[in-house]
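ARCHIVE CARD
Drawer: 12
Card no.: 0347
Subject: one protein chain, sequence and derived structure
Cross-reference: see card 0346
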Amino acid sequence: MLFTLSFNQLFLLFAPFAWAMRLFRNEKVATWVIVALGVLVLALKTNASPLPQSASLILALAVLQIASAYFGVWFYLRGGIFLAWWLALLIDARHLLTFAGL
């Protein structure tokens, strides 16, 4: 969870968004570039998997990635880096139920 909070958002959200803002100078375009980057990374991860995934699983993961990337950028623009990290912490906190055995 600490890796996700620090490096995952750094490499998939904050740094690419800064790059896209410098390149396109438009907040909406930069946001959708980040969403597309997240979907591209998801596609690369699923293609690298030795086990085939069902189409419904890939679709669900893509929808979740799109929503996560969009709201991550939205929270980052509205509240800064700490609000975006708080969102990631809440999303990753779902794994605590697995660790607790519930």
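Annotation on reverse: The helical segments are 2-24, 27-48, 55-79, 81-92, 95-100. The mean pLDDT is 88.
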